[in-house]
Design the sequence.
């Protein structure tokens, strides 16, 4: 069975929230990448809500790092919200958590 990732975008006046649910891995990264690339450069704060994430692998982490870098280069902020335990563990193990702004901006 192939992993799945549901991506849902909600636009607000000053921020855009991308909610993901499922597994973020080499097979599903293109779904998030497509949604996020279309929004980077729009000037809004971009929030990636990971609360529905059940698994992340190194390619998923690499995508989040690349999106964060691209957003910052465009003068935009990217925030991670609702980071589940497994994803938090990956961020801690790779010592990359500090590279992201985090909070509960997805509400």
Sequence:
């Amino acid at each position: 069975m192939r992993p799945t990732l549901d991506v849902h975008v909600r636009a607000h006046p000053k921020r855009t929230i991308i909610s993901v649910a499922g597994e973020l891995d080499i097979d599903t990264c293109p779904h998030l990448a497509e949604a996020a690339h279309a929004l980077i450069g729009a000037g809004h704060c971009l929030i990636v809500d990971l609360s529905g994430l059940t698994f992340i692998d190194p390619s998923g982490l690499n995508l989040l790092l690349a999106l964060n870098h691209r957003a910052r280069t465009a003068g935009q902020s990217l925030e991670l919200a609702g980071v589940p335990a497994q994803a938090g563990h990956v961020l801690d193990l790779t010592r990359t958590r500090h590279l992201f702004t985090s909070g509960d901006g997805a509400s």
The CA atoms of residues 56 and 103 lie 19 Å apart.
